[in-house]
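Q: What would this complex look like in 3D?
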Amino acid sequence: MSKALYLLIVVIAFLTVAGVIWLFAQALAVNPENPWEAFPISAFFLGARDYMLVIGGIVWVVGTIIFVLELLGYTITTSGLKKTKFGIANWSVVDIALIALSAAVYGGLLFATAPIVLVPGFTWLRPANSLAPLFGMFFGIPGCLGVAFGNLIADILGGFFGVGSLGGFIGNFLIAYLPYKFVRDHTFTTTRSIGEFYLWGVLAQAIVSAVYICWWLDIMQAAVGLPIFVIWGIIAPIIFSNNVVVTALLSPILGRALFPLIKARGLYWKMRMSSQ
Amino acid sequence: MLAGLYREGDTIFHRLDPRPKLAWTLLVLAASMATQFNGLKSLPVFISVVLSLALAGIGVKIAFLLIFNASIFLLVTLLIWLGMYSGTGVILAKLGWLTITDVGLLVALGKFFLIMNPVIAFVVFFASTKPSHVIWALQKMGVPYKLAFSFVVALGLLPSIIKNAGDVIDVQKARGLALDRGNIFERIRRYAPILIPLISRMMGDVWDLSMVLASRGFGYAKKRTFVDTPSWSQLDTLFLFLSIVFYGGIAAWGLYL
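A: Here is my prediction, written as C-alpha cells for the whole assembly.
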C-alpha cells in the first residue's frame, strides 16, 4: 500500500474517534435520560441486527476456527495451512510466563483502573484496553491468549462471569490477534507501521470484537438474560466506541515507547521465534 | 503469592472434590435458565447460592463486592424488564413513568437471578478450590495442562499486579499526574506514564517466572503428576445427588409446571 493510503486510514480512524465522541455528546443533549436511544451507532447496530446475525455468524465461525487452529499450532496463510511454533505443545516456560503475566496485567488493569468520564453519563472508556492489540503484536499468540484470559479474569473479579464470558474470551483474543497477524511493521516509527496499526489494531478489531461478542450474546440470549436492545443498542456501541477511541489515542504512544524495551528484553515474538 | 481468589479454609465446600463443585455451578446455571421468566421459581436457587457463600466461608470483602454488583444488576434488570412488561399482567404500582405489573416483576427478578446465580456459584467454586485442584480438574475435563496452568497462575498473580498498579498510580499522582483533568485526548494520554512502568516491570517478572518454572523442570515430562490430588468421597456423591435432585426439580418446575 502507498503512503497516501496509510495516511488516509489514519485520517479515517481519527474521524471515527471524533465522530463517536461528538455523536454521543449530541445524543446526550437530546435525550439525557437515555442517550442510547438517540445515539446513531446504537441505531445502526439495532437496525442492522438481521445483517449482524449473518455477518456475526460468519465472524464467529471463522474467529473460533482461527482460535482453535492457533492453539493447535497452525495458522492460515495465503498458501494454505502452515505449522507455527506457537501451538500449546510447543509452549516453553517463557510462553507460559508471558500468558500468565499478560493476563494478570491486562485483567488486573481492567479491574483496577477507573473508567474515564468522557462526558457525564458516558463513563466506559477503559485505558487498559489499549494494551490488547500491543500484547498481540509484541508477544504473539501468548500475548493474544493473555488478553483473552485477562478479560475472563476481569469478568470473574468484577462479578460479570457467565455464559456471555465465552464470547468475550475469544472476542478479546481476536482484538489482539488481528494486529498480530496483519500488521507487518511493529516499530510504530514508519508510515506503514502506523497505517497498518490503525487499519487492523484500531478499526478492524473494534468492529470484529463488537460483532463477535454481541452475536454470541444474542444467540445465547436464553442463557445470558439480556434483551436485544441492550445487546445491540448498548453493548455493541460500547465495545466498538471504547475500542476505537482508546486504541487510536493511547496504543501508538505506548507501542512507540514499549517496542524497543520489549525487543531489548528478548520478549519480542519474532526474535524468540527466530532464536528457537 | 499464587493463591489468588482461593481462601484457605476447612468448610464443607473446601472438602469437596472440584468435579461435583463444577457440576454444581453448571446445575445452578441450568436451573436459573429454566426459571428465568418467574422470579419466584428461581428464588430458591438464589437462596441456595447465597447459603453456599456462607458455607464456603467467603470473606466479607468478596461478599460485599458481590452484594454491590447484585444491587446494580437488580436496579438495571428491574428498570429494563419492568418497562418491557409494563403492558402485561395486573398493575401493582405506578412510579412516575414506570408501570410495575405482576408479570414484569416476576420476569425482572427471574432475569436478575439468571445473571447473579452463576456469578456467585463461580466465585464460591474459585474461592473454595485450591489452584492446583482447579488445574487438576480442568485437566481431567480435557483442557491442555499448559493452558490450565497459565490461567490459574494468572489468577494467582492478580492481587500483586493490582497492588503494583495501585502503587504506580499513587506514585505518578504524587508527582503531579492528574488523570481527571483536561480534554478527553489529554486524559487518555495521561495513562501512558502508568501503563509503561507496569509493562516494564512485567517484562522482568516474565523472566523471573520462566526461571522458576524451568528450575522446577516444568514441561519436561509429557504426563503431569500432582503431589496432592483430590479424591472422590461419599460426601461428593451425596452433594452431587442432592444438587441434581434440587436443581433438576427446580428446572422441571420452571419448564413444565
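A: To summarize the key features: The beta strands of chain B are 91-95, 98-101. Chain B has two domains: 12-130+232-256, 142-215.
Q: Very helpful, thank you.
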